[in-house]
Amino acid sequence: MSDKNLNPFILFQNWFESASEKEINDPNAMCLSTVDNNNCPHSRMVLLKGYDESGFRFFTNYESNKSIDIEQNKNVALNFHWKSLQRQIRIEGLIDKLNSDESDEYYNSRHYMSRIGAWASDQSRPLKNREELEKKIEMYKEKYPDENNVPRPPHWGGFVVKPKNLNFGKICHTVFIKEIFLN
Ligand SMILES: Cc1cc2nc3c(=O)[nH]c(=O)nc-3n(C[C@H](O)[C@H](O)[C@H](O)COP(=O)(O)O)c2cc1C
Question: I need a surface site. Which of 9, 39, 92, 105 has the fewest CB within 10 A?
């Protein structure tokens, strides 16, 4: 079913608000799929941290595998699945980095240890052992002891997924689907 008059962002907001009331954990969790330079797809969960008509935003390490995929191929897909609502929303579109002001704003709103973690963690890279990470955390706590002054690492920031189409699915006896294509 397709309805050109329906604003998909309002429908998204509607469903997201219902999920925020009903879903026990992480209603903002979404599966992000990227494609690497061998055309192999990779999926993982990330947390939605903002959305509006310009797109759907999340934050990550810019040196992670997902970011390497994104550098080579800007086509991505998102999938929200809310078991409590028996609903999913599939989104396909193009992804871009957020500007540094937006990344700074979100980074600075994070808990001190999350900001230290952004420095200490080499996301997607294997750790020799837990001590290695703990040592790095201690090192960055010493380097940035003032909770109000932890700069954002250059390798950490946000992305925005600009949707080309959104597909709203509700599982009843059969699957009801509303698909909206944007220009
Ligand atoms: C519920 C959930 C939420 C997550 N949210 C994020 C997130 O917002 N950003 C992030 O970088 N990783 C997040 N992760 C970890 C990723 O799924 C993934 O393991 C990590 O980003 C490395 O992925 P990559 O090697 O494909 O880049 C989350 C994991 C789970 C289970």
Answer: 39
